[in-house]
Specification:
- The protein is about 25% helix and about 30% strand.
- The protein is of the alpha+beta class.
- The protein folds into two domains: about 150 residues; about 140 residues, no CATH class.
- Strands 6, 7, 8, 9, 10, 11 and 14 form a seven-stranded mixed beta sheet that branches.
- A hairpin with a 2-residue loop joins β1 and β2.
- α1 crosses α4.
- It is flat, with a radius of gyration of 25 Å.
Length: about 325
């Protein structure tokens, strides 16, 4: 039996009846599918521009809707006309991450193709973790000034979303108040109610389940969220769990307060605020020059941009 088929791709024999062939193009499709099944980015961002990506370094032009000027009308006077040219925002596909593996010719006889399938599954998961972490770590820093801090609220200016020195304390009795306050921040920015999201860490989700919502009569469900495990939507926010939200250790430095608490940036908002585009542009097989082995490698390029900071809220909080 030869080590490779006619096309040069390694063959794997796991039964007397025949061989299986590794096909890079099939892996490419699998990895893309698994990436989007696992990530939260597709759910919390606008991904309309992905089809325009061809390679690393591409630049996508995004046209914004111009703002109409409303003026007072005076009889028998000339009226003014706007020139409705919206600004153009550049979405640069300037980030990329890759994975690579080599398949030794001898190992090809000893490994079933399912082993490589497991490697592909892990590669897609690690890719998702790396890209999610990168985007979430940068997004909260670009939130509108009215949508974060101790005096949040474009109109009220009295909503505590937490500061770097004094993050908001959240318990099972206060977490619903924090979520409602985040909703008010968006309300005062006139953000649409449909399509809002809230990303929470595991500790916040557990406190939601221990809150007043554990009473099934308050949720309208036949069972409480402690019984059915669902949280779903609270105050127009669709909730998503993520263990990748950025965090920092904070010394509160006040009398009676705990020291060295771990505070997290809970990101709330509307998907119109963030645009994200990703594409697997390279998936190839090659023969290694100095080894009796084939290699497979893939390149995922992506870019992201906060195009409307008023659509996002940074709730900086710690578990009380």
């Amino acid at each position: 039996m030869s080590l490779a088929n006619a096309s040069g791709a390694p063959s794997y024999s796991d039964s007397p009846s025949g061989t299986r062939t590794f096909i890079p193009e099939v892996w490419s499709g699998k990895l893309i599918e698994k990436f989007y099944d696992a990530t939260v980015l597709a759910a919390i961002s606008n991904t309309d521009y992905e089809g325009e990506i061809k390679k690393f370094g591409d630049k996508v032009k995004i046209r914004t809707v111009p703002t109409a000027a409303i003026r007072d009308y005076t009889r028998n006077t000339d009226i003014s006309y706007d020139m409705p040219d919206g600004d153009v925002i550049d979405l640069e596909i300037d980030k990329g991450k890759y994975y690579a593996a080599q398949i030794d010719d001898v190992s090809a006889y000893q490994q079933d193709v399912k082993v490589m399938d497991k490697w592909a599954t892990d590669a897609s998961e690690q890719m998702k973790i790396a890209i999610d972490t990168d985007v979430l770590a940068a997004t909260y820093t670009q939130v509108d000034s009215h949508n974060k801090g101790a005096t949040a609220g474009r109109i009220a200016s009295n909503l505590n979303m937490g500061t770097s020195a004094a993050p908001r304390s959240v318990s099972s009795t206060t977490i619903l108040d924090a979520i409602v306050d985040a909703g008010q921040v968006l309300d005062e920015q006139n953000i649409p109610e449909q399509g809002r999201f809230l990303i929470v860490p595991a500790w916040a989700l557990s406190r939601i389940k221990k809150s007043d919502l554990k009473d099934a009569s308050l949720t309208g469900d036949g069972q409480s969220i402690l019984r059915n495990g669902r949280v779903g939507m609270i105050d127009r926010f669709t909730l998503y769990l993520s263990n990748l939200l950025p965090s920092a250790t904070v010394n509160l430095g006040t009398s009676g307060a705990p020291n060295n608490v771990k505070a997290f940036h809970l990101l709330a908002g509307h998907k119109n605020g963030l645009t994200f585009a990703s594409q697997m542009t390279e998936m190839e097989k090659l023969r290694l020059e100095k080894r009796f082995a084939d290699a497979v490698r893939g390149l995922q390029v992506y870019g992201y941009k906060v195009i409307d900071p008023t659509c996002l809220v940074d709730l900086y909080a710690y578990a009380a």
